[in-house]
């Protein structure tokens, strides 16, 4: 009877954590991983780990913090695994693996219409072409701090113009 009661408390606790944190953890997992294909795996592994440690978590003073740290650890693990997996796939297989996102994205053309041409170029070089701030600064013959500042201000301007949550 005692074991059954403990299992019931454990299940109720996990259900409570799930109800409280699922949407926030999902947004966090997407924001940190930037891979829509991994979000559900990250959440599943995070909640599985929480279930395994539910007895400790029920007594933990900051179980929400524990959940975020665990999710971050799962993100790092799964991102690393995904990167090595994607290196083994040909381009067509990678395209087939892409799933339609559950998230709203802003079209590139809309971003281009909302910021200055130079800022759009900097944003695309950094976020799409994956150049570092230093590399962009060398290409544009500017200081790194200038490039960071322009990108930061352009993103802030976009956030103000577009309803980004």
Offer a quick outline of the entry.
The chain is mainly α. 79% of the residues lie in helices and 0% in strands. The protein folds into 2 domains: 2-97, Rna Polymerase Sigma Factor, Chain: A, CATH 1.10.1740; 108-161, Arc Repressor Mutant, subunit A (Orthogonal Bundle), CATH 1.10.10.10.
Model description:
The protein is mainly α and 165 residues long. The chain has 2 domains: 2-97, Orthogonal Bundle (Rna Polymerase Sigma Factor, Chain: A), CATH 1.10.1740; 108-161, Arc Repressor Mutant, subunit A, CATH 1.10.10. Helices cover 79% and strands 0% of the residues. The protein is built from 9 helices and no strands. The longest helix has 32 residues, at 2-33. The chain is elongated, with a radius of gyration of 21 Å. The termini are far apart.
What is the N-to-C succession of helices and strands? HHHHHHHHH
Total beta-strand segments? 0
Number of domains: 2
CATH class of the largest domain: Mainly Alpha
Low-confidence stretches: 84-104
Could you say what the CATH topology of the largest domain is called? Rna Polymerase Sigma Factor, Chain: A
Counting H and I runs of at least 4 residues, what is the number of helices?
9
Biggest sheet overview = none
Described by its quaternary structure, the protein is single chain
Integer-rounded radius of gyration: 21 Å
Broad shape? elongated
Mean pLDDT: 78
Helix content: over 70%
Distance between the termini: 47 Å
How much β-strand is present in the residues?
under 5%
CATH architecture of the largest domain: Orthogonal Bundle
């Amino acid at each position: 009877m005692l074991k059954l009661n403990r299992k019931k408390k454990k299940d109720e606790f996990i259900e409570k954590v799930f109800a409280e944190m699922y949407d926030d953890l999902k947004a966090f997992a997407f924001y940190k991983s930037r891979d829509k294909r991994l979000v559900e795996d990250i959440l599943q592994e995070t909640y599985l780990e929480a279930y395994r440690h539910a007895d400790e978590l029920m007594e933990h003073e900051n179980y929400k913090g524990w959940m975020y740290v665990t999710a971050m650890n799962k993100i790092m693990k799964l991102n690393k695994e995904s990167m090595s997996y994607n290196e083994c796939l040909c381009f067509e297989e990678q395209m087939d693996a892409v799933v339609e996102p559950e998230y709203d994205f802003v079209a590139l053309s809309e971003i281009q219409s909302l910021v200055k041409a130079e800022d759009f170029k900097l944003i695309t070089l950094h976020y799409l072409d994956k150049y570092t701030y230093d590399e962009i600064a060398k290409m544009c013959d500017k200081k790194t701090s200038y490039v960071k500042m322009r990108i930061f201000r352009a993103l802030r301007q976009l956030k103000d113009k577009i309803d980004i949550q």
